[in-house]
Specification:
Helix content: 55-70%
Strand content: under 5%
């Protein structure tokens, strides 16, 4: 599901914004789902982040 969200958004901030927009829906347990997706998107962002190098 994280891959689907990232596929349809250009940045991680946009993906997190998409997740926050579903929090307002009336679907049961959507808050737990949104929190899990937000954590997974942040984890993916940290894995792909390039470390700073001092030259």
């Amino acid at each position: 599901m994280v891959d689907d969200i990232l596929e349809h958004t250009e940045t991680y901030y946009e993906a997190l914004g998409a997740i926050s927009s579903i929090k307002g829906s009336k679907i049961p347990n959507v808050l737990h789902l949104a929190d899990c997706l937000r954590k997974d998107i942040r984890k993916r962002a940290m894995q792909q982040k390039t470390p700073n190098h001092k030259n």
